[in-house]
Design goal:
Number of helices: 3
Strand order of the largest sheet: 2-1-3
Number of strands: 3
Largest sheet: 3 strands, antiparallel
């Protein structure tokens, strides 16, 4: 399984978009300051993710989000994700 994910930092009010095959380990690396872009900008919160069967699909999703260059688009993804989570936990 592969994942595209979005992190948010309140400290710098920025989003970070990435992809990985091990979401838990990747988040640990972000929090342990082992990823250069995120090292001094955290703490980071996982605010969105999507699972894929292939690395190429996860990478394509990451590229698509980054190409949008839109904070509004990212925040819409997050809002929809939170709505899906809350509606699935109600059932």
């Amino acid at each position: 399984m592969y994942y595209t994910y979005i992190l948010y930092s309140k400290k710098v009010d920025r989003y970070y978009v990435g992809y990985t095959s091990d979401l838990e380990e990747r988040l640990k690396r972000h929090h342990d300051h082992k990823i250069s872009y995120t090292s001094n900008r955290g703490p980071w919160e996982l605010v969105w993710y999507k699972a894929f069967d292939s690395k190429s699909a996860a990478y394509a999703c990451e590229r698509s989000i980054k190409k949008m260059k839109s904070r509004k688009y990212i925040e819409t993804l997050i809002r929809n994700f939170k709505q899906e989570i809350s509606s699935s936990s109600v059932h």
